[in-house]
Specification:
about 475 residues; transmembrane helix
Length: about 475
């Protein structure tokens, strides 16, 4: 009987998570799809354009995610306020998050511009350097709009409304492909701009996406009643501090992981356009599949945050276990599919045989890499539902930078272990760092679940 009840709960909760998670998965895939489409388009032009995009995009994405990490701390906060039935607090949280996002976005824009002149010292060819500099100079203008987008996504997802995330993501993904085609290849009277055209597309998309978010909030009755844009709020620095303190570890965690890949891209750059292009392609393939687990992990985080907010800790603990099981299952299945037909996947990104051969060798380990990376990424998402961000951040910094990066650098750039393995050595370091991070984060999750269950009473287990 107990086993039947457990299976019954698993099935019901899995259905809840999937209903919330599938739209989030599609939304996350669509968001990553913007860069995936950019990589595909630039790769069809030339290896130089692909390499320039790789340098520029890796720098921009680190700053984008660092900014987004701060703002994403509001998602579980919105979920708890929603579960506690406090609409006025949701309004105040959203207004303060919006002001904070605009400020952070402006600082991010200035930071990107300050980095542009430094690229001339990277050691890449003049053509690659010029492409990367032009790419960053244009895309920097979109950072304040990106901050607004993050707030709109967090507000809607935290309140359990995934229509904006899903609908807007699909719209901008389709529009991104059209504009990329026009700007990259020079259609309908436009000059062919290559990778720089991708930056112009992203800037246009960000402005449109932000306006769509404002329009959505002002149209849907649930959000319109909050009157978020009807008055100018006074700065609430205490609220800013709360968001900052919760979001900073998330930002540092994202910086630890994405910075790991981005710094490695800069180290690979002097090796030539082929290894750098292969790194960018492999990274996009992995990121695309990882978004499936992240979407489910975020759905689980929202579910358990709402349960905690409504005083049901035992239910939250069981939701975390169900969500993690689903996340890992998805990652493993898609990893096997990629390993089954890697050549077909790579052919979508490039016609350059040298780049394709390097990428092909790296995708052999796709199932293992995706399973482990999904484990650590989805657990990190679930822990955010407990508002546990500091310890996970330390674990990820340790895994990536104290172990993974030194090992990857020693294997890829030195003869410490014998002959240098180049890009394969760097990715071996990635795998080692992710394994350690995944193990530590899973231990942390078990500790948090134990703390949640101990003081709870069985009557709070109802859904």
């Amino acid at each position: 009987m107990l086993v039947n009840k457990s299976f019954s709960f698993f099935g019901r909760e899995a259905l809840h998570i999937m209903r919330l998670g599938i739209p989030l998965m599609i939304a996350h895939v669509a968001m990553v799809g913007l860069e995936v489409v950019d990589t595909m388009m630039a790769g069809q032009v030339s290896s130089t354009e692909l390499a320039g995009l790789a340098v520029g995009a890796n720098i921009w994405l680190v700053i984008e995610l660092f900014m987004g990490g701060w703002i994403s701390a509001t998602t579980p906060r919105f979920a708890r306020l929603k579960g506690a039935g406090k609409p006025s607090e949701i309004r105040h949280e959203a207004q303060q998050a919006m002001l904070m996002a605009l400020g952070i976005g402006t600082l991010a824009m200035l930071l990107i511009w300050s980095i542009v002149p430094l690229l001339s010292h990277l050691g890449t060819s003049p053509e690659v350097t010029e492409t990367a500099q032009s790419y960053l100079s244009i895309i920097a203008w979109g950072m304040p709009a990106s901050g607004v987008i993050w707030v709109m996504l967090c507000l809607c997802e935290g309140c359990g409304d995934i229509r904006y995330s899903l609908g807007s993501s699909l719209i901008v993904l389709a529009l991104n492909a059209v504009l990329d085609y026009i700007f990259v290849f020079g259609k309908f009277g436009m000059p062919a701009m290559g990778a720089v055209g991708c930056a112009l597309t992203t800037l246009s998309i960000y402005i449109l996406w932000a306006l769509m978010g404002v329009a959505y909030i002002e149209t849907i009755p649930e959000f319109k009643a909050l009157k978020i844009f009807r008055s100018m709020p006074r700065l609430d620095f205490q609220r800013w501090r709360a968001i900052f303190m919760l979001g900073l570890p998330i930002s540092l965690s994202l910086l630890a992981e994405e910075g790991f890949f981005s710094v490695t891209a800069l180290l690979i750059a002097p090796l030539g356009t082929e290894p750098l292009g292969a790194h960018q392609i492999t990274l996009q393939i992995v990121a695309l599949v990882l978004m499936l687990s992240l979407g489910l992990g975020q759905a689980t985080s929202i579910r358990l945050s709402s349960s905690i907010g409504s005083g049901k800790p035992l239910l939250a603990a069981r939701q975390a276990k169900v969500g993690l099981t689903i996340c890992l299952s998805y990652a493993f299945v898609f990893g096997l599919l990629i390993a089954w037909k890697p050549g077909l996947v790579i052919s979508l990104f490039t016609k350059d045989s040298a780049i394709a051969n390097v990428s092909l060798a790296m995708l052999v380990f796709a199932p293992l890499f995706l399973l482990i990376d999904s484990a650590q990424a989805s657990v990190a998402q679930i822990l955010r539902g407990f508002e546990d961000t500091k310890v996970p951040m330390l674990f990820q910094v340790f895994g990536y930078w104290c172990l993974g990066f030194p090992l990857g650098y020693s294997l890829g750039a030195t003869d410490f272990w014998g002959e240098s393995y180049g890009i394969y050595g760097y990715w071996s370091g990635f795998l080692a760092g992710i394994i350690v991070s995944a193990i530590l984060l899973n231990i942390r999750l078990q500790i948090m679940l134990g703390r949640l269950i101990e003081p709870a009473t069985p009557d709070l287990l109802t859904d």
